[in-house]
Amino acid sequence: MTRADRPTIRDVARAAGVSKGTVSFALNGRPGVSEDTRERILAAARDLGWTPSTKARALSVSRSFAVGLVLAREPELLGADPFFPSFIAGVERTLSDRGQALVLQVVPESEEEAGYRRLAGAGRVDGVFLLDLRVDDPRMALLEELGMPAVSIARPDVPSGFPAVLVDDRPGIAAAVEHLAGLGHRRIAHVAGPAHFLHGSRRRRAFEDALAEAGLPAGPVVEADFSAAGGAAATRRLLDSDVTAIVYSNDLMAIAGLSVAVECGRAVPAELSVTGFDNTDLAGYVSPALTSVRTDPYLWGRKAAEALLDLIDGGTVDDVPVPAAQLVIRASTAPPPPQ
Amino acid sequence: MTRADRPTIRDVARAAGVSKGTVSFALNGRPGVSEDTRERILAAARDLGWTPSTKARALSVSRSFAVGLVLAREPELLGADPFFPSFIAGVERTLSDRGQALVLQVVPESEEEAGYRRLAGAGRVDGVFLLDLRVDDPRMALLEELGMPAVSIARPDVPSGFPAVLVDDRPGIAAAVEHLAGLGHRRIAHVAGPAHFLHGSRRRRAFEDALAEAGLPAGPVVEADFSAAGGAAATRRLLDSDVTAIVYSNDLMAIAGLSVAVECGRAVPAELSVTGFDNTDLAGYVSPALTSVRTDPYLWGRKAAEALLDLIDGGTVDDVPVPAAQLVIRASTAPPPPQ
DNA sequence: CGGAGTTACTAAACCGGTTTGATCGAAACA
DNA sequence: TGTTTCGATCAAACCGGTTTAGTAACTCCG
Predict the structure, then answer these.
(1) Are A162 and A127 in contact (CB under 8 A)?
(2) B40 and B48 in contact (C-beta within 8 Å)?
(3) pLDDT digit string (tens) for A87-106?
């Protein structure tokens, strides 16, 4: 019943008739071991079913072979966000190839700093991902202080010393506005995410710029919180105005908004056009199907993990470009009603 | 710039004028250290800002101080599922209190076994959570073979030797059926999840039992895959039949189904009643607002983590009861149209 | 006053790897 | 043939904790 203890490098050494050190060299493919011996050692290791102990390696080389991700969002908001699962799946894709693990930490917002400090203090991870960047994000300085390598998703406003995956939401928002303008809309509103989030404020900014670019007057902007409730409330306020289209900062708010519009007797898209952002699984299956901006968090995750591991391995890492988001046109957008 | 190396237990020992061993005893609150000395040591540790090295502790006590979660779902399905983020948040709640970390692994379905083996082989985790139980789940035997402690969410069909958090979906489904029956519905359909998933087949079974219990004839059941696309397709098939209500196995399919019904000109709830499962954030903000079953994955996560840690600490752990799910009645259910 | 038991502590081994410094034998060179 | 050089190998130290065995001093008891 009790399985035999796992073989250690010492057992392999004994079996191959060499010393521990030689085994270590052989297994790590380092020079100074004869081809003959190397093969004998590898065979012995295979026969014994030897696997390196991460614990021992971690201690001797002062590495954790793991990277961390701290999430300070409320669980409810997380639940509705399609970003994380895909992002994490992408991260894993890279990590598992390179023998690393992902340590996840979900904390209340008030304990965010403590979360990073715990991870660093206990030496649990060799680096972290920086998500949900905020304006004047205090985490940059914190990580610098902790001496913790990091890769951010999207480039922060102030140069951070950390490489970033150059996620840029602006082309997606711009495409949505252009699409609406092209359909003939002139009074377009925006339901924004919280301004203290970089992606919240940048999408808003992109919206404003795109309106100007299209030669349209500035439209109303309502700040919401990326939640369904927030999207619904914001929409209610906008329905009083005379806008003919609303660009939402994410799909969740857009879908909630869509329902509010319908309940208020506004036909979508005949009387009101609506666009989302994220292109969630559900976007194509609401009624009318939601025009949205497709992003690729899986790819971002892969790239971010590659960059982070390279950084940890001591390389200098440049910012990582990624393809721009694409507008997916569905049934929720149409020409505005003839005035 | 280069921060001073972190102090080790040796530095603390030196500062307090005692041996390493004594420091270890003092810090772990073990007997055999005078009150005087203990305080001196604690003070020294505090002054030096000492933090135990997880790496070193892990090696010497053969523990990882981490638990694992392997997800073999497709990223798209994960993205839409509100379960994980909440569950993980609950898990973290317990883990962080007890100084443990969560190692996440997202793998393609084909590599599920490899995922567990990697985690076990490298000694990354001391135990794992078992989610998305399947009928005849091979992971039970695998984990037994690996000697890896585990806690499952929901009780498997065959006794597994692992404790389970007794999540039971049946009362929720039963409540939905009773609610519909009480409204006067007699022909009720079910859109089920994949039958090889325990929660898929159990919800279906609960549906069938509840119909019988209510004295209603068996209704049509369509098996789908928990996705929006699947829910939409299943709904299309059911609209041809003469059912007046559909009980969905999750909210995502229900919301997609709702849209299909509307697009086919069936008024909800006037002509067709619809219920979901999960009570996602969005449920209350679609039109009509979705009657759904509220579950509590955050609590499950907390309980599961407690059980797992207790199990790892060598305790014998019983199955953990949790409160039954509650039906949340909203606007998507109403009496059937007068025939 | 001597032996047993207890308390507080130290020194050293240990966990399983990596890494350094020393050693040894054979080939290369003068 | 003696010396040098080099590749292959080994023994031992090290990472930073925990744990065990051993010891010195101190108390208790007859």
Answers:
(1) no
(2) no
(3) 999 999 999 999 999 999 99
Q: How many helices (H) and strands (E) does chain B have?
A: 13, 12
Task: Report the gap between the CA of A222 and the closest CA in chain B (Å).
Answer: 18
Q: Which fold has domain B9-51?
A: 434 Repressor (Amino-terminal Domain) (1.10.260)
Which of B279, B297, B302, B299 minimizes the C-alpha distance to B289? Answer: B279
Chain A neighbors of B302, CB-CB under 8 A: none
Under the banding of pLDDT at 50, 70 and 90, the label for residue B193 is: very high
Q: Which of residues 25-54 of A touch B (CB under 8 A)?
A: 51-54
Interface check A332 vs B, CB under 8 A: no
Give phi and psi for A130, each to the nearest 5: -115, 105
User: Using one digit for the tens of pLDDT, what is the confidence trace for A257-315?
Assistant: 999 999 999 999 999 999 999 999 999 999 999 999 999 999 999 999 999 999 999 88
Round the average pLDDT of chain B to a whole number and report it: 94
Separation CA B105–CA A66 (nearest Å):
12
Per-residue pLDDT band for B160 (boundaries 50, 70, 90) equals confident
pLDDT digits (tens, 9 = 90+) for A203-243: 999 999 999 999 999 999 999 999 999 999 999 999 999 99
Q: CB distance from B259 to chain A under 8 Å?
A: yes
Task: Answer whether residue A2 shows pLDDT above 60.
Answer: no
Q: Which of B51, B82, B263 lies at the smallest CB-CB distance from A122?
A: B51
Q: Give the predicted TM-score (pTM) of the model.
A: 0.95
Identical topology for domains B9-51 and B66-167+297-323:
no
Distance, CA of A20 to C1' of D5, in Å: 26
Nucleotides of C under 7 A from a protein CB: 7-21
Residue A239, SS3 per DSSP: helix
DSSP per position, A201-221? HHHHHHHHHHHHHTTPPP--E
CATH, domain range A66-167+297-323: 3.40.50.2300
- Dihedral angle sign, alpha carbons of residues A92, A93, A94, A97: positive
**Any idea which residue has 């299309």 for tokens?**
B236
> CA-to-CA distance for A67 and A62, rounded, in angstroms?
14
Contact between B102 and A105 using a beta-carbon 8 Å cutoff? yes
Q: Give the nearest partner residue to B282 out of A90, A99, A255, using CB atoms.
A: A255
First to last CA, chain B: 80
What is the distance in angstroms measured between the alpha-carbon CA of B5 and the sugar C1' of D15?
Answer: 13
Scanning B159-218 for CB atoms below 8 A from A yields: none
Q: In the CATH hierarchy, which fold is given to the domain comprising B170-294? A: Rossmann fold (3.40.50)
- Which residues is A266 bridged to in the sheet? none
Listed residue (B70, B69, B15, B22) closest to B47, CA to CA: B15
CA separation for the pair A268, B259 (Å, rounded)? 13
Q: Which nucleotide is nearest to A10 (CA to C1')?
A: C16
Spell out the domain ranges in chain B.
9-51, 66-167+297-323, 170-294
Out of A6, A90, A124, closest to residue B101 by CB: A124
| Among the listed residues B300, B299, B315, the one whose alpha carbon sits nearest the alpha carbon of residue B127 | B315
